[in-house]
Structure formats: C-alpha cells, structure tokens
Amino acid sequence: MALEAGTKLGHYEVVSSLGAGGMGEVYRAKDTKLGREVAIKLLLEEVSADPERMARFEREARVLASLNHNNIATLHGFEKEGDTSFLVMELVEGETLADRINRGAIPVEEVLPLFLQIAEGLEAAHEKGVIHRDLKPANIKVSDNGNVKILDFGLAKAMAPEADDSGNASVSMSPTLTLAATQRGEILGTAAYMSPEQARGAAVDRRTDVWAFGACLYESLTAASPFDADSGPDSMAKVLQVEPDWQRLPRDTPARIRELVERCLVKSPRDRLHDIADARIEIETAIAKPAASAEPGSLAGPVAQSKRMLWAAATLLVGAALASVGWWQLGPSEPDAPLPPLRFVIDVAAGTYLPPGSGSNLAISNDGQTLVYVASDTSDTSRLYVRRLGELRHTPIAGTERAGQPFFSPDGLWVGFNVDSVITKKVLLSGGEPFTLCQGCGSNGVWGEDGNILYAQDGSLWRIPEVGGTPELVAEPTPELGVSGFSSPVLLPGGKAILFQDGEGAGFVSSGIAVLSLDTDEVVRISDQGTDPIYSSTGHILFPQGNTLFAVAFDIERFEVQGQPVPVLQGVRVENGGALQAVVSPDGLLVYRAGGSGTQLVWADREGRVESVIEPWRVFYGPRLSPDGEKIAVQITTGGKHDIWIREVASGTLRPLTTTGNASNPIWTPDGAQVTFSESSEGFVIQSVPADGSGSAETVISSEYPIWPEAWLPDGRQLVFRQDSQSSSDLFVVDAGGGGSATPLLASEFSEHSAALSHNGDWLAYVSNRSGGDEVWVRPFPGPGGEHVVSLGGGGGPVWSRDSTEIYYRVDGTGLTVARLQTEPFQILSRERLFNVSDFWGGAITLRRHYDVGLDGERFLMLSMKGTDEDRTRIHVVLNWFEELKRLMPTD
Question: Distance between CA 765 and CA 778 in Å, rounded?
Fold first, then answer.
C-alpha cells in the first residue's frame, strides 16, 4: 500500500516516498520521539501475512540490528502498527553505486577507496555470522564525501523460513526458500549478481558475498555487468556457464586487482576467494603500492571454471523477483549445449485472482522481462498488474480499473488495454494517467513497429496511430479470398503480413486460422480449426483447439505452411469464445494459464454449497431469473461477441435470444414476457425482445454514451437505466413506449448505478460513491423522502427480496450479505453475512451484479469457479520453451 505524506505509523510520521525496494516500499520519515529522520520500509504482504516468516524475520532482525559499523546502514528496529509491519533504518543520503555506474565506468583511483569500505563493511558483518545475500550496486550508497554505506544487509536471509535440522543444502539455508504448508520455493537475489550456488538453490555462505563483491567491482571498472543479458534467465545461464569478458577491464587496472576480480568470480566456491578480508588486504596493498597498469590479455587467462551445471530452479522474470519453483535438475553438459526447458508456477498478486472473460489477459514485453496480466481484487474490480525483472512484487497499474486484453508497445514502455471492451487506452508502465486512444475501436490490439495499433472490429481490420486519432480501415472480409471476418490479428515480422483468426456470422463463429499478405492480398489458410493465433520467432504458428495448443511451421519468405499441425502443450486455458490465455516472448519464455474455460452457472444455498450445476463451462455474465422463476436470461460471451441466451430451468434447454454479438446486461420485464438488454451494434441503445423469440427487438432509448437497463417499474411503464459518461455513472427514467426523452433520476458529480426497485415499487436501492466509497443506498420511489445507507463498509449489486423486507448485496467481493429492514419508519434491523463468495465470480460488482436470488430467498444463482482454485491464482511459466517446441515441431 502507498503511504501519503503525514501518515503516522506509531511515533513515525511519513515525510515522502523514497521508492520501492525489492522487499517493500521505502519512505523518508520523522521519528517524533527522538527528533531524527529515518527510513522506514514496509514489508511485502507475502512476508507480513505469513506467521512463520514473520517469526523468522523478527529473530533475524535482532541479529541485524547488532551490526554496528560505519559502512553498514544501521537497522534501528522492527515495528508493527496495526496490520502494518515495517523496518526502521538509518536514513542514508547520497547516490547509489548503480547511479554512479550509470554515468560511466569509474576510474581505478576512485574505485579502490570505495571498495575498500565495502570490503570493511562485509568483513565486519561476516565476523558476526551475517551474510548479505543480495549485494549489488543498487544496495550500496555513496555520500558526497565518498563515505560508503551498504544497505539491506542480511534482509534476504531474514525473509527466509526457519532452517531445518539437517543443515544440508536444502531450501532451508539457501536462497531457494520453501514454505512448509505449500512447498513452493522462492528465489531471493538478483540474477546478474547471484553466485552459481545461489542460483542453483544450494547452501550459501560468505563466499556468495565474495562473488557479488567481485561482480560489483567488475561493473564499477567497466560500466557493464560481467553477466549482462537481455533477461534474468539468460543472466542466470551466464552465471552458471559463461566467463566474464576480461578484456573489458581498463588497461590501467593494477594486476593484483585484475587477479582479485578473477578470484572472486570463480564459479566453484571451493576454488573462489574464501574471505572478504583477503580482498580488503589486496585493495589496501594496491592503494599503498600502486603497480604498473596491466595490459589486456597479459594474464595467463581466466581461472578455470568448474564443471558446468545444468539449468537450476529459476523464476519468471528473475532478478530480485520472487517466484515459485516447480523442480530443478543438475547434470553435466557441453558449454554450448542449449539449456533444457524448465517449468514452474508463480502466484499472482496477494488478494487477487485471474478472472475469466473474453480476450487474452496476459501480455509479455518483447524483451521477455516484463509481464502484465489482468487480475481482480477483493472488490472484484479487475485491473492490470505488472511483474518486472528485479522486483519481488506484483504492482497494480494505476488507472486501469475494469481493464482487459493488454498488449505491449514494441519498446516495452507502454501497455495498451481495453476498458469494458469499449474504450482502448494506453499507459506508461513508469507511471502516469492512461491516455484514451479511441472509444468503440474493437479489441485484441497489436502494436506495430510503424507506430500504429492494429485491431479487429466488426470483422474488419483497422489501425489507429499510437498517439490516437482517426481509425483507418486496413482490410475487410473478402469471401472470394476465403476471408469471412478478421479477429485476433498478429503482425508477422516485417509488418507485411497479418496472422488472424477467420470468422463468420453475427456470432462470429471461428472458421480457422489464416495469414494475409498486405502487399499482394494473398491469403494462406493455416488451419480450418483453431482460434487466437500466436507467431513464434522459431518460425511456427501456434493456435489452440479446445484446451490443447498446436504448432505448425510457416515459412514467411515463401509464404507457405510446412507440414501438419502438431500438439505441443495440453491443458492450456482457452475461454469458451476461443481466447487463448498464453503468450510467448521472442526469446522463448512461455507464460500461460491452465485449466477449464469460463465459469459454471450454479445454484448455491445460504451457506454457499453448490446444489446442482446447470451449465458447462462458459463465459457467463449477469444471470437473471424470470419473475416466475422458470427461466434464466444470461449473457454469454463467445469469441469476443456477447449475446443473450435463455435457459429453461425445468427442461434444461438453452437457446440464443439474440444473435447480433453486441447484446449484454439482460433484465426481465415485470410480466416476464420480454427481455430488455443493452445493444451496441450501431451506437448505444436499449432494446426489448419477446422472451420466446417470436418477435423482433424494439428500441426503448438510444444515447451517445453507453447505457444499460437496470430495473423496470412494477407496472412495466417506465425503465430505470444507467448512463456512463466520461466522468460518472447516472440513473435516468424513460417511458416504455420509446421515442421519449429520459428524465434524470440520480445525476450528480458522483456515480450512481446498480438500481433495484422493490417489488411494490415504493423503494429504490442503488449504489453510490458519494460517501467516498461504493455503498448500497435506499430512498423512497419516486420520492420525496430521505436517503439511507444500507451497507456497512462497502457494498454493491443490491437485490430486493420478494416481500421487500430484505436487501441482498455483495461486500468487497468476499461475501453475500442480507440486510433486514422496515420501511415505515425506515430502519435497518440486522445485517447477516450468508456466505463467502471467493468461489463465485462477481465481476465488477460495483457496476454489474453477476448473481440473482431465488423466489424463496433460500438459493442463489451464481457463477461458480469451484474446481479452478489453482488456475485463478497461479500463472505457469516455461523457460527455454523453444527447445521443446523445436524438438516437437522442427522447422527443417
């Protein structure tokens, strides 16, 4: 959580933010008791919420607080204020060594005094048995007068659970940590500075700090990491098997310093410099007795490295990243042999889950170092989260509420996304307000090197400049060429051809995968089945059929398919509409979700127990029971298209009511004869259609803004609807006959929505944020009379009981609550939490309710996600997946 200036934690008052470290947010603060400035670091929720790790942390913090040395930033204490745990540390002014290196290589005469102090600080800590475990330039501060302070000393070990009794090279004493309850590993450290034993998850001692010391010294002299690579996994591979480029060391580097760096970076701990005190002595000697500059290559050569070890336990976006590790292997291999694939999983941000929906909810930058995904929090509000290299956290991207279908800019600085599948925006990952590119401009965007964003809408291909502007038509369906519609476009290398999902009909039924040449208009069919294709830089086209990912070789130069599709991955999640939940980076990092597709429509009793499943997995939205309880109207999303379907409760028959592909948010008319819904095929309208499918739809009202039906008055003569503007949501009333103008019901600077009328029509329940957060309110209808808050601490999606004495609503996405009330005079008699809803999907409950209440109030129509717990909270990762792909589907 972010703290504002002036926030008080005990007797510490926050002054300003200092940034985010690998283990938590860091703030400048004032100690009001002692009148001094300090730095406070809030611990990550993953640590503070785990009693075992907190107990371990407190014990380690006591040891770390005992370190008293001029070159070590002092840990003053470990504090708790309510649910917030934080460290109080010495406030160290100055720039980091990383900042200094960013300006260029540091001259030898400046480097040696700095690293003498670093060695002295490490030596003092090692003498007390404390190992840093994450020494890197970013953790070293240099003041204006040249004084060095080492930061975050020993915190990596403090993050670990308790050691086991064996004392062997298990997870207990290594940077690969395993929680007893879950047996999920976590790597702590930064890839380019990890010692080989640390990267492999083996036991570590003070020699791992010696390695990092050597890596930092090399980087200071050369302005380049000795194991620099395009991604964290590649850095770890270099650490395990590649020697640094010794020719990069400056010509004036003293011979003994060259040898020191080399001895620090020996891969075998047995042959590495054993004690940092020896490094201190070497630097002191070099300062006291300057030697002649050593010529590059004058040494006999690098110290022989130890036998190469195969790929170790790693993480998605390693660096200082925290992730879960599935398994690891060790074994000899030739130096140039490719690394085998490695599978593991990571958990999404604490307190969130991966929601179902249309479109892919995963995106990865071209350099494979940044993952963006869509997740919903405890209020069931979806937003984008970013997972970067070098971080232990999943960070929500501000301003991306209700976001979906993310896609990266080529340089990885921006991410585009859709809001409610209507508005396309982009936002800088470094921060800032999202920028609206266009409204109603389709979905599944792809950002080209030419500065244009390509997207599909209504079966055609369009592009819009990355700075916004007027969309330009790229291609239309051409049945004579075998193209009935475009969806899920992918720009192939060079930007001269587009891979896409072909489709036809109002519901956009997929008819396979194809490639279109923009130069010649030639179309090549890849497959007559499949959806949502991906192009792999190995020369393969990937696409799902069911929950299996297939691959087929494609020659871009010859513009032809080579061979037949072959299954390469089973158990990948594909939404019912065909949206593949998988992405592949150009360097072979595969990220995907596993499991079934969509949700299940179920009945649940008052304790949340599912009585009967009445639908297979699909992408459902907003189920509504008919007034007689015999039918269900529900929105089903297929291939990015939304239509209303009717379910006969008794017979189990399911039939489509609309076929436009743009119908959503169904509600029943009071007599149950018609279903009213929002239609966006041509502008924004609300329509009604006979529920038995016997007639055509009639328009109730149209608008320039998105509008949604909320509630009919009991006599069926007027409709309450919601209109979304750029700044708020408001409630209006319109006559049923259509053609008339709407009358404002609740229109203000705040957002009012989710209207629900009591069955006698005398009271209106709705959601408003006028109190600072979304709460359920009631007022007499049509008035006059006062307004009353029903919910307590947040609420959304109100539903009245049949006798108008109860209101059901959801709270923060965690529970279904019923409030019992009397209306004359108005009074809340009680509030009762019925059941938790973590197993039931609610979508953005503040704007739409995705449940309904049975006639007797004893059972509830819910969207169940039971059976998909792991899929909701875990992302699967495969490092070096291209090796497996090449084996299964060679291009030669």
Answer: 4
Judged on CB neighbours under 10 Å (0-12, 13-18, 19+), 371 is: buried
Locate 49 and state its tokens.
């919420």
pLDDT at position 487:
86
Q: What are phi and psi for residue 886, nearest 5 degrees?
A: -65, -35
Contact 422, 440 (CB under 8 A): yes
Q: Is 129 exposed, middle or buried (0-12, 13-18, 19+ CB in 10 A)?
A: exposed
| pLDDT digit string, tens, across residues 795-807 | 889 999 998 999 9
pLDDT digit string, tens, across residues 812-842 = 655 789 999 988 888 999 999 887 765 676 6
Better-predicted residue by pLDDT, 457 or 647: 647
CA distance 56 to 42: 16
**How many Cβ atoms are within 10 Å of 335's Cβ, its own excluded?**
9
Nearest to 666 by CA among 652, 646, 693: 646
- Local confidence band at 844 (pLDDT 50, 70, 90 cut-offs): very low
Mean pLDDT of 551-565: 90
Dist. CA 753–CA 499, nearest whole Å: 41
Q: Contact, 447 vs 453, CB < 8 A?
A: yes
Q: Give the strands of the sheet with 788-789, arranged side by side.
A: 752-757, 763-768, 775-780, 788-789
- Mean pLDDT value across residues 566-581: 80
In this structure, what is the dihedral angle of CA atoms 85, 89, 94, 96, given to the nearest 10 degrees? Answer: -60
Q: Is 439 helix (H, G, I), strand (E, B) or coil?
A: strand
Spatial contact of 515 and 494, defined as CB atoms under 8 Å apart: no
Q: Is the previous residue joined to 782 through a cis bond, with omega within 30 degrees of 0?
A: yes
Nearest CA-CA partner of 113 in 64, 65, 147: 147
Q: Report all structural domains of the chain as residue ranges with CATH numbers, in order of start.
A: 1-91 (3.30.200.20), 98-339 (1.10.510.10), 342-596+872-888 (2.120.10.30), 600-867 (2.120.10.30)
Instruction: Identify whether 134 is a catalytic site residue.
Output: yes
Do 718 and 736 form a contact (C-beta atoms < 8 A)? yes
Given the residues 134, 380, 532, 643, select the one marked as catalytic: 134
Dist CA 542 CA 532 (whole Å): 9
Helix (H) or strand (E) holding 699: strand 698-703
pTM, to two decimals: 0.45
What are the two backbone dihedrals, phi and then psi, of residue 570, each rounded to the nearest 5 degrees? Answer: -110, 155
Pairing of strands 148-150, 140-142: antiparallel
Q: Is residue 764 within 8 Å of residue 753, measured between CB atoms?
A: no
Q: Of 228-242, 449-463, 473-487, 528-542, where does mean pLDDT reach its minimum?
A: 228-242
Distance linking the first and last C-alpha atoms of the chain: 52
Strands (E), 235-391: 342-347, 362-364, 370-376, 382-388
Which of 342, 338, 340, 315 has its CA nearest to residue 328? 342
Contact 213/279 with Cβ under 8 angstroms? Answer: yes
Q: Listing from the earlier edge strand, what are the strands of the sheet with 486-491?
A: 486-491, 497-504, 509-517, 523-527
Q: Do residues 466 and 451 make contact, with C-beta atoms less than 8 angstroms apart?
A: yes
- Contact (Cβ atoms closer than 8 angstroms) between residue 228 and residue 245: no
φ, ψ of residue 278 to 5 degrees: the values are -70, -35
Q: Which tokens go with 878? A: 């495969």
Which residue type, as a one-letter code, is found at position 729?
Answer: S
% pLDDT > 90, the chain? 34
- Report the C-alpha dihedral over residues 367, 370, 375, 381, rounded to 10 degrees: -110
Q: Specify which residues 13 forms β-bridges with.
A: 8, 30
How far apart are alpha carbons 621 and 634 in whole angstroms?
6
Provide the CB-side half-sphere exposure for 520 (13 A, CA). 7
Count of residues for the chain?
892
CA 668 to chain centre: 36
- Give me the pLDDT at residue 692, please: 92
